Amino acid sequence: MKNQLLSINDLSHEDVIAILATATQLEKITTGPTKKLPTLRGRTVVNLFFEDSTRTRISFETAAKRLSADVINFSAKGSSVSKGESLKDTAQTLQAMGADAVVIRHGSSGAAQRLADSGWINATVINAGDGTHEHPTQALLDAYTISKRFPDNNRDFSSLKIAIVGDILHSRVARSNVLLLTMMGAKVTLIAPPTLLPVGVEKWPVNISYDLDAELESFDVVMMLRIQLERMSNYYFPSEREYARRYGLNETRLKRMKKNSIVMHPGPMNRGLEISAASADSARSVIIDQVGNGVVTRMAVLYLLLGGATLSEVLS
C-alpha cells in the first residue's frame, strides 16, 4: 500500500484483500479478552474534521485507541479555523505537534489530496470524506460487511448484483463504492431520478436505472443513500413524499427482495424518506453491522499504513 489513503484508486485489488484480511484478524482479536494492541503505541493520530460527522470521527478515534495510538480530535468549529486560519497554518501546527497520521474530513473536494501533496506536513493522510469526491474507508467497511454476509465471495464479488439507490449526485460514498465494488467484480446498478445523477455518469462502469422496482428481486445488496438536503439549493424532485413513493425502501419493496439479500445504508438515515423504519430495523438490515465493521476496517487501514506490516505478513 501507499502511505496515504486519499482515494480507492490508491489501492490495488491485492491491497483491498489485505485490508479485509487484516480487519478479519483484528476483529477476532478485539472481540476476545484483549481489546487493545500495542501496534501504534507512541504514534499520534489527529482527527482533523472541518465537517461534522460524529459517527466517522468516533469510529476512527476508537480504531486508533484500540491500536494504542494517542488521538487528538480537532474540530473546525470553535477553533482557529473558524477565525480564518488556513489549511496550511493548521497543517503546520499539527506538524509541530508531531502528528504521525491525519484523518481529514473536509467540505471541499480535493482537500485531502491538497494536504497530502502540499509538503506542509510529514504525516500519513487518510481521507475521511472530501466534498462530493470520495470516502474510501466507508467503501472499505461496506465491502467488509458484504464479505461477511457472503463469505463465499470474500475475495471476488463477481457473482453479486448490487444496487446503490438515491442521491448519487452528492454522494462521495457512492463514488468510492462504485470504484471498489467494481474492482472486486460486482455488477453495480445506480438507481436514482435523473436529477440526482452526476454529469458523465454514463462513463462509469455501472448500469443506470430510474426505476427501483424494475429489477429489485435480482439484487443481492441494496444500498440506500441519504438524501443530502443540506447540499441542495434547487428542487431535485417534486416532494419528499413523491421521492419516498418512487425511490424509498419500504416494507412492500422489502418483501419483494431476493432471499438472503441485505439492506445497507452509510448513515445517518432519513427514516421515512429514503428508507422506512421497518426496513432499517429489519432482519435484512446490516446497518448496525456497518458501524461496528467500520472500527475494525479503520483499524486495518491504520495498522497497514502506520504499523509497517507487509502484505505477505498479513496473508500468511
Q: What can you see in these coordinates?
A:
- The chain is α/β, with parallel strands linked by helices and 316 residues long.
- It has helices spanning 13-30, 54-66, 87-97, 111-117, 136-149, 172-183, 240-247, 251-256, 277-280, 287-306, 311-315; strands at residues 44-49, 70-75, 101-106, 124-130, 161-165, 187-191, 207-209, 221-224, 262-264.
- The protein folds into 2 domains: 8-135 and 291-315, Aspartate/ornithine carbamoyltransferase (Rossmann fold); 136-286, Aspartate/ornithine carbamoyltransferase (Rossmann fold, 3-Layer(aba) Sandwich).
- It has 11 helices and 9 strands.
- A 5-stranded parallel beta sheet has the order 7-6-5-8-9, covered by helices on one side. Strands 2-1-3-4 form a 4-stranded parallel beta sheet, with helices on both faces.
- The radius of gyration is 19 Å and the shape is globular.
- The chain starts with 12 loop residues before the first helix and ends with a helix.
What is this entry, summarized?
The chain has 316 residues and is of the alpha/beta class. It contains eleven helices and nine strands. The protein folds into two domains: 8-135 and 291-315, Aspartate/ornithine carbamoyltransferase (Rossmann fold); 136-286, Aspartate/ornithine carbamoyltransferase (Rossmann fold, 3-Layer(aba) Sandwich), CATH 3.40.50.
